[in-house]
Amino acid sequence: MFGQYRTFYLECRRSFRPSFISAGTRVAERHEKRTDSDNHLERIVELLHRHELVENLVQRESGARQPLVESLVHRQHLNELQQLLDRLHPADIANVLETLPLEQRLQVWDLVKADRDGEILLEVSDAVRETLIAHMDEDELVAATGQLDADEIADLAPDLPDEVIQDVFKSLSTEEREQLRAAMSYPEDAVGALMDFEMIEVREDVTLEVVLRYLRRLDQLPDHTDQLFVVDRGEKLQGLLPVNRLLVSDPETLVGAVMTREYTSFRPEQDAHEAAGAFERYDLVSAPVVDDAGRLVGRMTVNAVVDFIREAKDTETLAAGGLAEDEDLFASVWKSVRNRWAWLAVNLVTAFVASRVIGVFEDSIAQLVALAALMPIIAGIGGNSGNQTITMIVRALALGQITRDNARALFVKEIGVSVLNGLIWGSIVGLFAFLIYHSWQLSVVMTSAMALNLLLAAVMGVLIPMVMHKLGRDPAIGSSVMITAITDSGGFFIFLGLATLFLV
């Protein structure tokens, strides 16, 4: 018995060995993997170009042997390409597909083995996934989806035709159907949409030796299994059994004696951003998901959290630039135009507003041409300062750091920062104006306008994202566009208004 326990212990140590690799070694391995991925991409692109070039040359030839030569050339390059794809990880293939133009992407997709389709569809971006699914028939989609777990099918479900979803439901067991319905019933940013149903449950009244024998009968442990879930006969969660305790404790000890009753758990309807924050704070690898009655319904794992954070960051980056959705790099011109036009239209309106503000002070600008040269400085610095404030506020909102109690203190702090920055940088630009135009009055106007515009930027930089958040809107979407419009128009109005009052 001890020999079996020791063998299992050594096998698990080998399986967990990457956790103890030095930081320098991990960095080197990541660099090596990234280099290999780049090399694979270059090789695939080279094979596609060679195939296309030779195929064009063969088609120009005439004669009875042309079909034979064309077939041989076609088979040679595509076989080499297929062998290369067979060796790649699904994530690397997804990266290749996202990098290729549509025609070459579909050519590579046709060479991927059918039993890997589902894994790759999970890895590619939403926009690229649409092009691949549109290229597949219903039977191919059902076969690809049927290879996945219920939680993975739920990830693909929004992009699949209804007929495919119905066929997939029919092919699942009763338990898997319930799991799929549960996963699909939650919004994308809820814990329930990210939870995994593949986990190991044990009872607290059995010995660790019984648990070890049970684990040995499994083909493999579920991914990211750092702990087992201890439940009663009603599936209520009683505690967690960390794998490290399982390995180092006496095999004759009961599970209840070594399990931990203090743990972090989540509800299916809970915001996934909150869960992601908890994973970061407590360095979690996995965590239980329980319902209102305390029954174990699933688990969250660090890989799902990392994917969620990456997708949320991508969405935030696109939203900050005024893009409404994930855009395929090689999407059609018309689709890209439709994705980008909304905020361009908003920008156009705000530009007209700014131009009319300037138009109001045409006489002042005509009398003092220096105003035309200096006013972009006021607007530009104000816009940058406002964007800095908005970035801080949006981040704080995403992390749940802003509450009703501290919002006032945060607002006062940002006002203080803007006033100090306004006086410092206003004095610098005022000195700059004095050295060029030799007018202390213009210098004072520049300093005052800079301070007031930075104050405006701070106020709006706090209010815009907080009001949008209060209204249930994503504060990252369009905030930078709005603050730029306000600081441009406001900066022009403040500077030209002060100049009209005191200089003209």
Question: CATH-wise, what's the superfamily of the largest domain?
Answer: MgtE N-terminal domain-like
Number of helices: 23
Q: Which CATH top level class of the largest domain fits?
A: Mainly Alpha
Report the major sheet: 3 strands, mixed
Average pLDDT number: 85
Shape annotation: globular
Radius of gyration, in Å, reads 30 Å
Q: Point out poorly predicted stretches.
A: 1-35
The number of domains: 3
Q: What is the CATH topology of the largest domain?
A: MgtE N-terminal fold
Q: First CA to last CA: what distance?
A: 97 Å
Structural class: mainly alpha
CATH-level-2 architecture of the largest domain: Alpha Horseshoe
Can you write the helix and strand succession as a string?
Answer: HHHHHHHHHHHHEHEEHHHEEHHHHHHH
Strand order of the largest sheet: 1-2-3
Strand content: under 5%
Helix amount: 55-70%
How many β-strand stretches? 5
